[in-house]
């Protein structure tokens, strides 16, 4: 492949990686990771509400990594309340799991930045082998993909296994009990999945530029050495 085509491909990879940095940073600051509706079971049982009457007892919760908002309804109208995870919900959420999600988000921003820098360096600079060359491009993009997967897996575990929406809805509630009615992941969560797909696309772009996978090169060199040994 011509050098000009390689420059175009590597430049596109650099732009995509820098876009990943902006996407993750933006997603971390929003509160649109999860949206759930919660049912006030205490109020619904008191009046034996069924069918359309349940709408008066269904509130909502939406939150991200740092903050969120909940709307409580127990038959007397909605009560909006804004909250932050730190320090408000430290005693309610699984802090170690939530901290791991934040840590890997920061690592993903760092690795995506390195991907962007190395793509541009390979496009317009004079890279040498190992970390600054093709091996570095593969390594940082694969590391970013792994970080993206870890963020998604850990966050799903936090929300589903630890019933995060219910814990938030029942925060500082002494008389009413809330249960999750519906729950879905919002667009900020899926932006991280988009980042994962983008880094996978970057790996394909590196291969399209004519750079072999590192482990394929090792296998090919071993095969060639074996053939040479047989000849002599």
Automatic annotation (TrEMBL):
Keywords annotated in UniProt: Membrane, Transmembrane, Transmembrane helix
Keyword rRNA processing applies: no
Subcellular location: Membrane
Domain of life: Eukaryota
One cellular component (GO) term of this entry: membrane
Alphabetical list of PROSITE patterns matching this protein: PROKAR_LIPOPROTEIN
InterPro entries assigned: Clarin (IPR026748)
Membrane protein topology class: Multi-pass membrane protein
Transmembrane segments annotated in the record for this chain: 12-34, 101-123, 135-156, 187-209
GO terms classed as biological process: equilibrioception; sensory perception of sound
Family: Belongs to the clarin family.
The protein's name: Clarin 1
The organism's taxonomic lineage, starting at the top: Eukaryota, Metazoa, Chordata, Craniata, Vertebrata
